[in-house]
Amino acid sequence: MRFNRLAQQFVLRWYWIQQVLVTSIAAAVAWQIGDKAFTNGGLVAAVVASLTVRSSLHKSTREGVGQIVGSSVGAGAALLSLHYFGSGIVTVGITVLFSLVAARALHLGEVATINVPVTALIVLGPGLSETTASKRLVSTLIGAAIAIVLSTFAHPKTPAGRTIDRVSSLTDRCAGLLAQMAEGLIDGYSLEEAGRWLARARLLAEEIPSIRNQVIEARTFAKWLPASRSANAEKLYLRTIAVEHMIVQTRATSRILYDLKLHGGVKAELAQGIGELLSIASYALTVSAEDFRFDPYGGVKDPLTSEIRNAADALAAIALADHDEIASGQIARVMGAISSTIIIADSLDQISPAIRKVPTPQGPLSQQVLAVSPIEQARTWQNRLYRLIPSQIRDYFERTFI
User: What's the CATH number for 159-356?
Assistant: First the structure.
């Protein structure tokens, strides 16, 4: 029995244990290869590998490239500073300054932004010379490359598997919150309960950037695999966008219920109707999450969505029939709750043009190596430099060569 409890502790923490083991192996391998390449080159390689390994190949690639470029910028600035100011406080300050500016320009994440000046300072550590700095930069490249390769094994599942887990988990959480709101409406909820629902819905909404980054990683990863895998990744992408819409509508519903109670509520019949509608939506989400978990790439099959729409139409008819007895603001809120459940039904069916035809941002700029492509940046700087040339010279070149 005691052995089983001990084993269970390891099972529950296996995700963390796997990351620790992969990071340790990456550091050890980087140390060995770095030491073979250069004398004392293993330290820099091991540090960079430890800083770069993440649970995501996409993140490790981004941060590895960012550390190499950022550290190179910081090291180059420090070498120039050393040449003009000598070793001391000015050189250290300039190294950190240019490293942070480079990390910002590359739009690295918060952790990688700190890692860049740390790596640059290690590159420019004791025994500084141009030769030593260049060797340490190569060691940085070695550590980052090893981390990128081994980061593939830092997670027990593929990017697609992680996306499936996140999508099904968030769908279940939306269903659970809708079920709680439905029960509260039927039993007669308080303003305090509505506040707790709204707080939970806001926490759900905070998951949207994370799950979008996850499915973008799955799409990127699938580009290197057979076409069938890429098609499956696109299906996951559509489902993830649909879940985003469900989360937003769940949050909107929680806010509507809070405002309904804040302004005096509605009569019992209408409140019970809203509760029953949310209960149907909750059940549909639960069934959908279970189906998706076992068959994530199958066709959309959500027959319960028609029941959601029928209940929504019936409730709207009741609300409009009693419009003389209900304040106009409360009627608008009731119709808003009904509209949110219809959008949830459309999202489950994935039939809405808002999901299929409206482009979705590819994650926040902070998650990209470069917010603007190098070609676009070069074209921008070319135009700026061109405008600095006197107009007479520009006219001459245009007449002669264009």
Answer: 1.20.58.220
239 is written with which tokens? 């489902």
51 vs 252, which has greater pLDDT? Answer: 252
For 58, 178, 289, 309, the CA distances from 312, given in Å and listed in that order, are: 42, 15, 22, 5
HSE value, Cβ hemisphere, 13 Å, CA-based, for 177: 29
- With b for 16 or more beta-carbon neighbours within 10 A and e for fewer, the 53-85 pattern comes to bbbbbbbbbbbbbbbbbbbbbbbbbbbebbeee
**Alpha carbon distance 212, 363 (integer Å):** 6
Both tokens of 30, joined, read: 């980087």
pLDDT digits (tens, 9 = 90+) for 204-217: 999 888 888 788 77
Inter-residue contact 26 to 146 (CB < 8 Å): yes
Mark residue 109 as left, alpha or beta (left: phi above 0; alpha: psi -120 to 50; beta: remaining). beta
For the residues of 158-179, what is the DSSP string, one character each?
-HHHHHHHHHHHHHHHHHHHHH
Residue spans per domain, the chain: 2-153, 159-356, 372-401
End-to-end CA distance of the chain: 85
| Sign of the Cα pseudo-torsion (104, 110, 114, 116, in order) | negative
Whole-model pTM over 0.90: no
